[in-house]
Amino acid sequence: MKAIWFDKFGDAADCLQYGDLPQPTPAEGEVLVRLHTSGPNPSDVKKRSGATAPSLLDDGYVIPHSDGAGVIEAVGEGVPAARVGERVWVYQAQYGRRFGTAAEYICVESNRAPRLPDSASFEIGACLGIPVMTAHRCVFSDGDVKGKTVLVTGGAGRVGYYAIQWAAQAGARVIATASNPDDEADCLDAGADIVLNHRMPDWPEMLLNATGGEKVDRVVDVEFGENLEKVLDVINTNGVIATYSSSHNQQPVLPFYRMMFMDLTVRMVIVYAMPEDAKAQAIADIEVALEAGKLKHRIARTVPLANCAEAHELIEAGKLRGCLVVNTKVD
Predict the structure, then answer these.
(1) Domains of the chain by range and CATH?
(2) Does the record's keyword annotation contain Iron (predicted)?
(3) pTM (global) more than 0.85
């Protein structure tokens, strides 16, 4: 099969190799998926660069990417034969293992390949793992949000765009932050009631003016360390901060007593470590939403498998508005 792999850390153009690798065979409990798409995410780029998981290459080369979509072509022992021919999306493919979705084929545990409704394209399927499941966990991990006010920072980002949709559709009032008119429009289109420019240093004051002084109950936060001080100005006592990144300030200092006397909950979210019941609930809700056509998606760019290095570079540049998809079907 054609695949992308790396056996050293560094820049995408220097590390990522394209060529032929052996096609895998499904083991017990696994399915063999003929991939149509692969969805690279910032976490995949960081792994390749060596910024995280320094022991990743100890056992040999790595095929990157955790997300993707395709069709099951074979099953291992213990998996119903009826799954052959099923359209699926794949998540958590390159976690705790070497071989991800940047290839024509992948073998994964059957439960890591949920059904992809016919109404959803394979491109959409490649966006469902990290972006949509992270957003779901951030919004719903601490209970129902109906009637609550939810702040989504970076609402036009991969996760933020879906977090707005989950919260709005669940009956929350949603406030989002964005940095330009196009991103503001995306936030409003996703269901935000109020959008503020987070480039403005007084955006917390602007938020409170817009709500008549009412603070928010939940925060879905894209930059925990950078945003914490301002978030504390707008969050209610007993509020929850669900955060999935702090890339600009990786060692934030917490004002412990201020947060303690507000009885705040800080929840760190990553799909890989989500409880299995939370993953199952997210998958069930995603299927219902896809069947009903309730989720909006933004595919910013599609590149062929051979150009995977370009995909990594685009993600590192940080200028994409939406998800990037790698086409894994090779003629």
Answers:
(1) 2-127+298-327 (3.90.180.10), 131-272 (3.40.50.720)
(2) no
(3) yes
